[in-house]
Amino acid sequence: MDPLTASAEIDLDAFAANVDTLRAHVHPAAMMIVVKAEGYGHGLLPIAAAARERGIEWLGAATPAEALALREGGDTGRVLTWLYGPDTDLTPLVAADIDVSAQSEEQIARLVAAAGTVERVARVHLKVDTGLSRNGATVDDWPRVCAAAVEAEETGAVEVVGVWSHFAASDEPGHPSVAAQLQVFRAACEVAEEIGVRPRVRHLANSAAALLLPEAHFDLVRVGIAAYGVEPAPGLATLAGIQLQPVMRLRAQLANVKQIAAGTGVSYGHTWVADRATTVGLVPLGYADGVPRHASDLASVGLDGRRVPVRGRICMDQFVVELGPESTAKVGDEVVLFGSGSGGEPTAQDWAAVCDTIGYEIVTRIGARVPRVYVARVDVEGVG
């Protein structure tokens, strides 16, 4: 897509400001910036470069392909990856000096084999399930996993760098699972230590816990969505006493402007019919670009300091907005689907609210054919 027609503007200065704010907030714990899913839709390598520019030691990448892409892009710092299948070859990760999560004796054995193949020590973070019921060793299996890791470490095949877990509901202040998971994690760390595990870092806190739960910070916190200026849940940044700056601004030019008569139906199915003569505009983005179809007839966009409503169904490549009977808008005028809100435009959270979803989904779903345009003082050509 022509970036003049539509683009996602990524403000890396805002990202840097968020990183600085959050790092000060979680001090003295270290901070990992999670860059999975193409940097939450903002661009993997430019976001990684901006994070390293701010002195961030740790990056988090969900999949091995993401972690290896960082290395291929020139990144040489610490990277943790954690989501892989039983047939995934772990050898390239060990060869690239990437930290790998393990939750079972079988995964540790695979890392030992990979270390032998490339003649390099495998760096491992042991994951325990404290109550999310996704990845992680169960409490019953945890001692055996720790023992297997210690045995592998004694042979020189692996280094146990971390012990970690993940919260289920840290974005819901007062949720009873939070205290329960903290207790399980502390106990798991004690069990690991008794068996002989001596990790450099213990990490449990995600963005919400980084904001609100200092008792969960331990040695390292993993910050994802908050670094991109989107709250894990509405109001959490205010509760924490900090301000975050949205990093992504999704905008487009009007591709068409026309007047329609009262009684005219708009878009597929005519789910909206004009009740007056009015002017409509065509926005050249659609659900193939990540604009949620279920925002049809619900969302709005920003235009010249005001909001104009989406009318009719959002299509694969485009949707219609009502500009109003007295509108003087013309083809080429800019509309903003979401941004910081400072110019009257909706935010990603506003779109999330009308779609009954979370801000994470709004920014991460913006598709690859939407150009990312970077606005920043930092170098975004590579990663350092």
From TrEMBL:
Please state the pathway this protein functions in, per its UniProt record: Amino-acid biosynthesis; D-alanine biosynthesis; D-alanine from L-alanine: step 1/1
Query: Which residues are modified to N6-(pyridoxal phosphate)lysine?
Result: K36
Q: Which reaction does it catalyse?
A: L-alanine = D-alanine
Q: Which domain of life is it from?
A: Bacteria
Key word Isomerase present in the record? yes
Stored SMART domains: Ala_racemase_C (SM01005)
Checking InterPro entries in the record gives: Ala_racemase, Ala_racemase/Decarboxylase_C, Ala_racemase_C, Ala_racemase_N, Ala_racemase_pyridoxalP-BS, PLP-binding_barrel
Residues at the active site: K36, Y268
Stored SUPFAM superfamilies: Alanine racemase C-terminal domain-like, PLP-binding barrel
**Which principal EC class is assigned to this enzyme?**
isomerase
Instruction: Enumerate the GO terms in the molecular function aspect.
Output: alanine racemase activity
EC code: 5.1.1.1
Cite the Pfam families for this sequence: Ala_racemase_C (PF00842), Ala_racemase_N (PF01168)
Q: Where does substrate bind?
A: R134, M316
Q: Which cofactors does this gene product need?
A: pyridoxal 5'-phosphate
Matching entries from NCBIfam families are given as: alr
Q: Which family does it belong to?
A: Belongs to the alanine racemase family.
Task: Extract the PANTHER family matched here.
Answer: ALANINE RACEMASE (PTHR30511), ALANINE RACEMASE, CATABOLIC-RELATED (PTHR30511:SF0)
Please identify the protein, giving its name as recorded: Alanine racemase
The organism's taxonomy opens as: Bacteria, Bacillati, Actinomycetota, Actinomycetes, Propionibacteriales
